Structure formats: C-alpha cells, structure tokens
Amino acid sequence: MSAVQATLPLEFNRPAAPALRWADAGGTGFEIGWDHAQHRLTPPVAHLQAGSPVRQGWEAGRIVFGPRTRPATPQVRKWLQLRLSAWQRGRAFEGVQVTPAFLRRIDVPVCPIVREPLTHGTGGPLDASVDRVNNDAGYAAGNLALMSVRANAAKAAYAWDDAMRFVRQIEAGALGGIDGLDAAQWARLAVLMAYATPLPHAVAAALPMLVLPPPRLRLLNAVQCLQALLTLQFTREGYTQRIAALATLMPCTHTQDALRGLMHTLLARRIAAGFGSDQITLRRTLEDLWADPLVLRRWQRLALSLTEAHCEQVVREAMRRGLAGRELRWLPRELATEGWALESRGYVPMAQAIEPLHPATPPLVAADPHHQREPMPLGLAA
After folding, report:
1. Per-residue pLDDT averaged across 312-320, rounded?
2. What is the rounded CA–CA span in Å between residue 173 and residue 201?
3. In which element (H, E) is residue 60 found?
4. Chain segment 187-232, per-residue pLDDT in tens
5. Is 214 part of a structural domain of the chain?
6. What pTM does this model have?
7. Are 169 and 379 in contact (CB under 8 A)?
8. Is 147 helix (H, G, I), strand (E, B) or coil?
9. Does 342 map to a domain?
10. Which of 366, 382, 284 is nearest to 23 (CA)?
11. Which residue range is the domain that position 283 belongs to?
C-alpha cells in the first residue's frame, strides 16, 4: 500500500457492528481525525468504524499529507487525547490557546498533590495526567493542571468542597484515606480546585495555601490572588523591600499592621524550615508554612479586613509597580475564563450526542468551541 493511499487495513474495512449514528455538527471529530493524520498517528479503534467523523478526517488527512507529517511528540499525543475525550463527552475544548506548546508549558516534574516524581507512559499511578481543575468548566487555558493518575482518579468528578469534606472525615478518624489519598493530599487537592472556582470572599479567605498555583493556572478569587502574591515574595531576593512597599498599598493602618504581622510570621517559619537549593524544595517549604495555625490566623486577620475590591486593587497595583515578579500576570475580566463554558458547567451548549445502537458503546458528541461566554470578575495567571 502506498504512503498516500487511504484504504484501511482489512480489519477496519469489515462492516461495523453495531453501527453508530454519528453527530459532528461543528466538524470537531473530523478535525481530530485530520490532526491524527497530520502527525502520522492512528485514532483509537472505536473511532475507525464506518461513518465515524474521526475516521473520515483521518482518511482525508492521510491523502493530503502522505509522508509529509509532523513529529508526534508526547505533548501532541496528549493534546489529541484530551480533544478526543472532550468531544466524546460533550465537553467544551478551547482550541486556540490549548495546544501542544501550552501543554509543554504546564509540565511539572512532581505531582502537586501526592508530591511524588511524575512518570510518563509506564501505565502506573504516578504517570503524568492533564485534567481540568474545575470540573464544572471546560478544557481551556487556566483550568488545566498536570497531576498524577492517582490524584486525577481520586479527584474524579468531585468539587473542592467535596475534597474538604473528605479531609474532615479522615481527620475525624472515620477513615484512614479515601480513594487512595490521605487527609493532607485531599486538602491540597481542595485548595487547587478552589483556585479555579468562583467563591465568596470569606470562604476563599479561610483556605490555607497548601499548594502553590501550578504553571498557567488562573486564580478566580481576588483574595487568593493576594495570598499567592504574598507567599511568592519569598521565592526571590529583595523581599524585605517589597514587603515594605506592599504594606503601603493597604487601605488603612490596621491592614498595614496585619500584613506586616503575617509576613514576619511567614519569614520566621521560612527561616526555621531552612533554605532549599532547588525550586521544588522551596515550593514545598512555602506550602508547608500554611499548615501552621498561627500563619492561617494572621492571614485571616488580614484577608477578612479587606474586601474583594481591596484585594483586586492591591494585586493590580503591586503588579504595576513590579512587586509581583514574573510568576504572576493579571488578566482582564473578559479573558479570565475564556473558553471555560462556566454558564453550561463545562459542556458544549446544545451539544448533540451520538445515538449508539449498542448500550455498551460510550456516547460521542460534537463540540463547538466558539460559543458565547459571560466574563468572570477577575483572573490571575500563575
């Protein structure tokens, strides 16, 4: 068979039984198959049945590209896998920003939840897995993070408050762990999910920063944006001068004193913990500072003395003055949750499901990533 011939192997040319009635109103399935061909990859067998939009796109792409294909990097494979998974379940996928290059930028060497080095392609529980942080939002920039398969499987379809409930149940002695995670790991997962979940100011202010925001995550709560900005001051030199400058941004003397008290407590705990020589150790040290009850009390004294508007104003002014560093970037309101599809809880609006004639076949749906979205109040890209 020549390189440009579109004929499928004999196995895939057999009549499909049972047949499916495929829905691909937005052409998403065809595009996924086309991109498989462009990278010389074969879609999963389930999508090679007759009439499948993925197969149709794949066959058309093989004719057009022939041997002139692009490298199938691990990020490309993951990108195609995420798109196919989203399409199958009717989930919104924002394809302009979420690219193989974006997935490379959010890569981390250690799972932020279980704190073990991530592996790749072993089939084990520590293999790297990309997932949505907020389960009620789509696959979009700012709502994706890398974690282990183990943490991702435990997270499942739970929300941040479910994770906090599991923490209380484990700490009460009712259970030693839930779905393979202990109380500390569920607490880190709860905080991570809370970042990408719009919360009341007082609720977000009560959470310790047990996990620092991973790369490219968008924080939707102004008080957590301030919390991240303050904590990350200790990742680079010159924090004494910056803390003094940040105090001047507080709206009154009470909040200025509260900020100084918090930062002095964080600094004392930071010094006592020692200075790690690598970024992974440093991040873990800063996260563990927030397990100290005194740190949390002093943070809440500051945070609950501020309004959401105060927090937003302080963060934006700190960034304008160069006090936030390169780790954080402010996003306008209309860009904070672009592509998240929050109004439809992360699903493609009016998505049509495939009607399988066999009950064991998972439903496949078409996705339209160009739907209209309501802007969220704010966003901070970490």
Report:
1. 95
2. 30
3. helix 53-65
4. 999 999 999 999 999 999 999 999 999 999 999 999 999 999 999 9
5. yes
6. 0.86
7. no
8. strand
9. no
10. 366
11. 201-337
